[in-house]
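Input sequence (320 aa), recorded before submission:
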Amino acid sequence: MKAAMVLRYGPPDVVRIVDIPQPVPGPDDILVRVRAATVSSADMRLRSARFPRGMAMMGRLAIGLTGPRRPVLGTDLAGQVVAVGAAVTGWRVGDPVVAFMGGALGGHAEYRVLGPKTARIAKPEGLDWAQAAALSFGGTTALYFLRDRAAVRAGERVLIVGASGAVGLAAVQLALGWGALVTGVCSAANTALVTGMGAEVIDYAVAEWARAGRRWDVVVDTTGTVGVAQARGSLVPGGRLCLVAADLPQMLGGPLARGIRVITGVAPERAEDLATLAALAQAGTFRPHVSARFALAQIAAAHALVDSGHKIGNVVVEMV
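Predicted structure, token format:
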């Protein structure tokens, strides 16, 4: 089967399409023909070893010294079941599936074995393969920070820095769905997309949100550019600062922040979160945004787009 492999850290052109053996499912596994998978900021970091500040050594020790130990990247997928293990119940050949493998990776290949512990659900109707694959990374991250950690409530004021990215657009939709008053920070080129969802927008090239003289209950930074001191003056007393892409100093300094609560961490991969997002998609209140689609053979170009910092929503590779 074809797979995109990263054998050493580097720029997008280190990604190579190679032929590797098709995996064989065990008795508790299902084998999925992958139809689509995202190329996310997580894939970019794993390919380039561009770890957050203070985490370079830990990152290489955990992931690989000169290249990823798991060279087939891809944290998620949407596809069809083509084989089931003898002990598997609840899945049949032909079933459409969405899976979030997270750090187990492996989505950038034509086939992927999914074990019983992998977060996986039936693909929701009404989403194409690319949209279904895009349910996972941005949506589950936004759920974790806004619902599970910040406990955003109706009527609260929420500022989302990086509102046009995969996590940002998911956070905008979820917070609005819960009745929050949402302000997104993004470029002028993406204003219509974010306002079309119902949020107010601050153009970062025109206005400095931290100097706007306004205060929010929750500030969500999806870009890794917001510091605790910068956000403190824009939060109400006891407000919550969600640092989705926190570096080591921010993680260590968070508990020492005065007057606000700093939230960091890594979103888990849970089937129940995928099911929540799928139900919202079915209800029409959440829609994964796919801005660019590439064939697997073009995956280096997909990585280059993510590297540019101008990715809107989700970038997807399709294997059709």
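Checked by second reader. The chain has a mean pLDDT of 94.
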